[in-house]
Amino acid sequence: MNTNSNRKLMRLLDNHVQNTVLLASWLEKNGISRELQQYYVRSGWLESMGGGAFKRPKETVNWEGEIYSLQVQAQKPFHVGGLTSLSLLGLAHFVRLPTETVYIYSPIQTKLPKWFDDPRWMARIKHIRSSFLPDNTALFEFRENNIFLQISTAERAILECLLLAPKYIDLVECYQLFEGLANLRPKLVQELLEQCKSIKVKRLFLYMADKAKHQWLQFIDQTKIELGKGDRVITKGGVYKNQYKISIPKELDLTP
Q1: What is the pLDDT of residues 147-197, one digit of tens each?
Q2: Pairing of strands 22-23, 147-152
Q3: Which residues are CB-contacts of 175 (< 8 A; sequence separation ≥ 6)?
Q4: What is the pLDDT of residues 23-63, one digit of tens each?
Q5: Which CA distances in Å does 93 have to 80, 179, 221?
Q6: Which residues of 85-109 are buried (b: 16+ CB within 10 A; e: fewer)?
Q7: Is 14 helix (H, G, I), strand (E, B) or coil?
């Protein structure tokens, strides 16, 4: 292989973010052909991860490095959200473990690439495909382990948690998280609730905000929020809350 090809790769690697995936498609766009990629694997400059993905030898790729490459190299509309986002922001009530579930969200039609589903990585990825909120609203860039990721703001993240309740996330745990959200921004909360397409999520959010007695709730104009008609049974055999027309678990009703 010629010197110019080697220089191209070295320039890319010099600007490479450590512990992230190098995608074959991205390398090809930057002048490193598929043939050259295989040559660099044989030469020990790249290490194949399968499915059109590589990493640098001796680097450890974790979930942050995976998602970074999805967002930056593949330019796919995935973001970190829900419980994981609240945890990154220091708003969760539990200690993060290497094996905890990592929640990532994307539009309905988006699929994870094959290389992403690798059992060698410890974190369990839970991919949620939904358009209950606009794709790019209330996201921001967050630094985690020297890697910049697009994640949900606290305002969006708690709505993403409620979307998964009670099937995947316990409602009592959601409320415990909600109690710590005393500093949500009313203007952003208003915008999200007006745009949210899930009646269940909006009713649960307002119920929990009321129960937690957060001061920012007084700045929310609930007349502009579409809450639908009829009752919503969140939990069968639960306690009915007439103001929000929802049935909630008895455990949540008894939570101080």
Answers
A1: 999 999 999 999 999 999 999 999 999 999 999 999 999 999 999 999 999
A2: unpaired
A3: 208, 211, 212, 252, 255
A4: 999 999 998 999 999 999 998 999 998 889 999 999 998 88
A5: 18, 10, 29
A6: bbbbeebbeeeeeeebebbbbbeee
A7: helix
